[in-house]
Amino acid sequence: MSDENKHHATAAALLPLVGGAGNVTSVAHCMTRLRLGLRDRSLVQDERLRALPAVLGVVEDDTYQIVLGPGTVARVTPEFEALVETERAGTARAAADHGTGPVTAEGLAAQGAAFRAERRTRNATPFKLFLRRIADIFVPLIPALIGCGIIAGLNGLLVNLHWLPALTPALTAIASGFMALITVFVGHNTAKEFGGTPVLGGAVASIVVYAGVADVEAFGRHLSPGQGGVLGALGAAWLGVHVEKWCRRRVPEAVDVLVTPTLTVLVAGLATLFGLMFLAGEVSAWIGDAADWLLTHGGAGAGFLLGGLFLPLVMLGLHQALIPIHTTLIEGAGFTVLLPVLAMAGAGQVGAAIAIHLRLPHNTSVRATIKSALWPGFLGVGEPLIYGVSLPLGRPFVTACAGGAFGGAFVGLFNQLGTAVGSTAIGPSGWALFPLLDGNHGLGRTVAVYAGGLAVGYAAGFLATYFFGFTKTMLGELDAAPDAPAALRQPAPADPVTEKV
């Protein structure tokens, strides 16, 4: 049996003995031990686990620690994590496939979840899975981006008003510290996501922001600290993972703990300094220039397309490719001009939901779902409305996209006229984006343009859905009885709209 198969077999033997994936809350490893967080300690089969040839011992502390030895634990852990994720995904699909019962507000939510799981499975192409992994690198950083972004906005307001001058330097340090080291976090998460040792990914990525890189010359120029930013960190850590895996396959386990980290940091570090930083810096500059050009010259047309296509991009999983672009723009310019335009898709969804509520006065299930999901929709949480209302109905999903298109056109037009509207962080949209807004003409004008875009998106989504969101047949089926089970149990199978998105 090859080493790779041996470590996979060890992981496969361990998982059922610790209670299966449902009993595992966290997975990590140190030099010699696989450290597991467990929901129910009583589910662990201790005697059988200790009898496994690969297990050298068990230690119980704040986590359940299985001693596998140096070198071995680093190879078994990613196999174990992969098995946990696979088992959890299979359990979720099985639960979605067996959902039954009458159509109620809860039933609609379950139906939407099943539909989302089905779409996720059908869209599991290599390219989309890669984008999902890229998203998983950046999503854990969003809370810090939001917190630091709001503090930066508050600090900017205090500076403009000349209030609390003794406090603003401290707020600047608090808001800027995370952004100064974001490459380290990106490197850490990249290595974790692609099956490497997270701290080695962070170590390689930290080279990007080290001040001493100014003494290094590559491609005839001296490097600048931070050159290449998050893209350089991502590439450096990804390369480090491949070097580490190469070493794990070839370096004897007895010296693995010394040789593998050294070669990983050395090889990936040299490649970062003499290639990746320069190339990633060029790409980052191009992304910033392209975004500025798109909205400066495309204006309303670019905003119309971006706002109108964002919900279908979400459905296809392609929106995940935008996360590193947003982060790169924030890192370079201080804000991303794309997010406020894309946020208009949520406004169109809210307007469409209000129209559906008025058009179906007798359908208590749909109206109950809208009532519970509308306020989160105003705050930028659109999934309940998408998967619980508009997408199962088919046509209203398209009219919601039309609302987002007109809202995006409004914001894009003002960008073309010289008023850049941006966000200092990614994540929130709707009303929740107001504290994160920034631009080139002061906070008042920036807020006014964004609020105007939301109003246009609400109105356009409402009007498009109210007048064009239903055929006479659909209205007859959906509003004829309180529950209207037939129409929503089979989400518009004969309507090609649903298949297109």
UniProtKB/TrEMBL annotation:
Q: Give the UniProt entry's GO cellular component terms.
A: plasma membrane
What keywords were assigned to this record?
Cell membrane, Kinase, Membrane, Phosphotransferase system, Sugar transport, Transferase, Transmembrane, Transmembrane helix, Transport
Question: Which residue ranges does the record assign to the PTS EIIC type-1 domain?
Answer: 132-484
Spell out the catalytic residues: 30 (phosphocysteine intermediate)
Question: What domain of life is recorded for the organism?
Answer: Bacteria
What InterPro entries is this protein classified in?
Glu_permease_IIB, PTrfase_EIIB_Cys, PTS_EIIC, PTS_EIIC_1, PTS_IIB_1, PTS_Sugar-Specific_Components
User: In which organism is this protein found?
Assistant: Streptomyces pilosus
Enumerate the subcellular locations listed in this protein's record, separating them with semicolons.
Cell membrane
Matches recorded under Pfam families? PTS_EIIB, PTS_EIIC
Instruction: Decide whether keyword Nucleotide-binding is in the record.
Output: no
From which residue to which does the signal peptide run? none
Topology versus the membrane: Multi-pass membrane protein
- Transmembrane ranges, per UniProt, are 137-157, 163-187, 194-213, 225-243, 255-280, 300-323, 335-358, 373-393, 405-427, 447-468
| This protein's name | Permease
Q: Name one GO biological process term.
A: phosphoenolpyruvate-dependent sugar phosphotransferase system
Q: What is its main location?
A: membrane
Q: Which PANTHER family match?
A: PHOSPHOTRANSFERASE SYSTEM TRANSPORT PROTEIN (PTHR30175), PTS SYSTEM N-ACETYLMURAMIC ACID-SPECIFIC EIIBC COMPONENT (PTHR30175:SF3)
**What GO molecular function terms would the record report?**
kinase activity; protein-N(PI)-phosphohistidine-sugar phosphotransferase activity; protein-phosphocysteine-N-acetylmuramate phosphotransferase system transporter activity
